[in-house]
Design a protein that fits this description.
The complex is a heterodimer of chains A (138) and B (381).
Chain A: H1 16-23, E1 27-32, E2 54-59, E3 62-71, E4 85-92, E5 97-102, E6 117-124, E7 130-136
Antiparallel strand pairs in A: 1-2, 3-4, 3-6, 4-5, 6-7
Chain B: E1 8-15, H1 27-41, E2 51-54, H2 60-67, E3 73-75, H3 83-96, E4 102-110, H4 124-129, H5 139-153, H6 157-171, H7 185-190, E5 193-196, E6 198-199, E7 208-217, H8 218-221, E8 229-238, H9 253-266, E9 275-278, H10 285-293, H11 323-327, H12 335-346, E10 360-366, E11 371-378
Parallel strand pairs in B: 2-3, 2-4, 9-10
Antiparallel strand pairs in B: 1-7, 1-8, 4-7, 5-6, 8-11, 10-11
The chains are: A mainly beta (138), B alpha/beta (381).
The structure holds zinc ion (ZN).
Zinc ion binds next to loops of chain A.
Chain lengths: 138, 381
């Protein structure tokens, strides 16, 4: 199967629980064991209270579309999803924001709106990599 | 820092021999041309340079070697395109303390042609968390900030387009600008869709160019070739690198902090400026910078770009060189707004000269409003 997306690389050791979780259909987020701050991307210390007691929590997969762009081209030859597609910044209900794509919706600014509710969709790329995409909440 | 206001001057500015599409000139040559031209503009000799400040692919050490200078002081601050604006403040401190006597801030980038360039940088974070979704390249990020601004404040595509139109009008008066033909709001809206909310004319050029700035202490500046331009204030800030981590998106904390420091040092407030240079990688950047700097309420920045305000002959000229949108944008654009502000303060700008310009603001971003530098320049103490 031809890959349509550049695979996440290099996967950093501190992000392993995130990638492992996706393979099991779970959206795992780093969570500070001291102050409770949920953040992204994975780091070995909390960016809020600077504690190094960082664990993981399973996010609900629900959130909102914080902002978006409708891409009419790709600037990366390794990204082969046909344009137009939606570049999405998701804000999870647990707080962190992450980049993704919004799928299963017409890529039209008349339809796609900031703050619309979204939910995670897991998309397997190969045996090692599953990624988190988002669609309008059901 | 207030006591250091006006203690150093910019005494030399110049671009590379040419700017634009230059496949026959290597990145290093662009850089060295700019350095030699700026030092000559100051009426100084290269052998007098003893402080080297540069960002990008050339380290200060490499630049010193290539120029044949053994600097007493180096600075390689690298926080994106505004690094050169931030370095004005760093040079001010180094000069004040006698760590160097002649500071050279410089840039050279074969951004369009890639001549004499090898690429390579750490992408471990974006490679994992952004690139699988099609991110990569500034337009895929800055549009996020722009679209959220539209959502929160009701800004329209027509509002952003005005920025491109005003900037192009200035480019028409700059013989070095790459695109000089006037455009309309409708032209911007009708240009090729790229990354909504950006069409092609909302996005900066990609060119090959160098630029450099020379500074020295005010007492010595009197002996240089051109009228000295005083650094009245300087400030810097950083906020985030990843747009997902931008604290007050769509406003920039880094920009606000850098401006506050620079204005306090200079003892000026928003209404004092008669000329403004803002880093315009995208049409939406300058209005968001004005809002973040406190020139107006959030959401009102585009009103500065109405005909008769930012435009030639207007009440508050902005981006008088034609900007990254129409004059030149090699990648790290931040050296060029400094050069233009100095030329305006010297009165060298010919058709595009702002009559009586006496106080210029230069504000630039690094990355996606991630870092910021602000300087206040004047031809008077
Ligand atoms: Zn914490």
């Amino acid at each position: 199967m031809e890959l349509k997306r550049p695979l996440p690389t290099p996967q950093t050791p501190e992000a392993k629980p995130y990638w492992d979780g996706l393979k099991e259909g779970k959206l795992m987020m780093p969570k500070c064991d001291d102050c409770g701050h949920v953040f992204f991307y994975p780091r070995i210390a909390c960016p809020s209270c600077h504690s190094r007691n960082v664990g993981w929590t399973q996010a609900s997969g629900k959130g909102k579309l914080f902002s978006f762009e409708i891409a009419h081209r790709s600037l990366n030859p390794a990204f082969k999803i046909e344009a137009p597609y939606i570049l999405a910044m998701i804000e999870l209900e647990e707080g962190p924001r992450l980049m993704s794509n919004l799928i299963n919706i017409d890529p039209d600014p008349a339809v796609v709106k900031c703050d619309m509710p979204v939910e995670v969709v897991f998309e397997k790329q190969n045996d090692d990599v599953t990624i988190a995409l988002f669609q309008p909440a059901s | 820092m207030k006591e250091l206001s006006n203690s150093v001057c910019i005494v030399g500015v110049e671009e590379s021999d040419e700017v634009g599409k230059l496949p026959g000139v290597s990145q290093l040559s662009l850089h060295l041309q700019a350095c030699h031209n700026a030092v000559a503009d100051a009426g100084l000799k290269m052998s007098e340079v003893d402080g080297i400040f540069t960002a990008g692919q050339h380290s200060p050490a490499l630049l010193g070697e290539a120029l044949g200078v053994n600097p007493r002081y180096v600075d390689g601050t690298s926080v994106g395109g505004c690094s050169f604006i931030i370095m004005v403040g760093h040079a001010l401190l180094a000069l004040h303390h006698g760590l160097c006597d002649v500071a050279l801030i410089s840039h050279g980038e074969s951004g369009r042609s890639g001549t004499g360039v090898t690429r390579g940088r750490d992408t471990s974070l974006s490679g994992q968390f952004e690139m699988p979704y099609g991110f990569g390249g500034a337009p895929t990020y800055f549009g996020m900030i722009t679209n959220r601004h539209m959502h929160e404040y009701g800004t329209t595509l027509e509002d952003w387009a005005k920025v491109a139109v005003s900037t192009r009008a200035w480019a028409g008066l700059n013989p070095k600008a790459m695109f000089r033909d006037p455009i309309t709001v409708q032209d911007v809206l009708d240009s090729r869709p790229m990354f909504y909310p950006f069409n092609l004319l909302n996005i900066c050029l990609v060119t090959d160019a160098g630029g450099a700035v020379v500074l020295t202490r005010a007492d010595r500046a009197k002996d240089c070739a051109k009228k000295p331009v005083y650094v009245r204030g300087a400030g810097e800030g950083t906020d985030h690198v990843f747009v997902t981590e931008m604290e007050e998106l769509p406003l920039s904390v880094a920009t606000r902090n850098s401006g506050k420091k620079a204005f306090e040092m200079a003892g000026v407030s928003h209404g004092d400026f008669d000329h403004i240079m803002l880093y315009d990688a995208f049409s939406s950047g300058p209005p968001i910078m004005l809002e973040s700097l406190g020139f107006c309420e959030p959401g009102e920045g585009c009103s500065f770009f109405d005909e008769g305000k930012s435009t030639p002959g207007g009440s508050l000229p902005i981006n008088t060189n034609g900007g990254g949108l129409s004059y030149t944008h090699s990648g790290m654009y931040g050296i060029f707004p400094i050069i233009e502000a100095v030329r305006q303060q010297r009165g060298e700008c010919g058709d595009r000269q702002v009559p009586g310009a006496s106080l210029s603001l230069v504000n630039g971003m690094g990355g996606m409003l991630s870092a910021a530098g602000t300087i206040v320049l004047s031809n008077q103490k």
